[in-house]
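Practice problem: predict the structure.
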Amino acid sequence: MIPCPACGEELDVITAIYDTPYFGKLLITSISCKCGFRHSDSFSAEIKDPVRFTLKISEKTLFAKVVRSTSGTIRIPELGLALEPGPASQGFITNVEGVLARFVDIVETARRWNADDEEAVKRCDIILEKLRRAMDGSETLTLILEDPHGNSAIIDDSVFVEKMSEIEAKSLKSGLSIIDIAGRDFLSEELEKQEFREKK
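Answer:
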């Protein structure tokens, strides 16, 4: 028996496996309770070789497709940015421009959280300017997507794909999502909690 977190009664659990493009086999779960509590989630049902995709961001690659599974880590090393998987992280399919927009949202949130820290605000402003310049094609950055389970991808003719070693794959962070901005950690726990609440 799995108790409902809202009322303690037994939950109804439904699971199914679907074969999806790019993500492979996904285990879809849906839980519900008579009291009205509901939650659904998806998990990769297969593990592939760990992989790293590296792409130069330019005006020509802004629309390259990016497939990020729940185990994928996205980095922009020139700016010290990293989006890492957490307990409520979700997979998504977007393009490079969409990834940059996500980072803009994250850095703007970090800027608000650190409004009293003048140095942090300046650092965020510099990063935001570079991200926006990359979005209009006037700044060249590097996008790296790493996945220890091999379920993520960047789809473009100019992408460099390499298999990661087991040591590299094990070094990837998991658990609480951490946004690392130029050497300073900003925890995105509240963003993850918000995503979790929205999914309910």
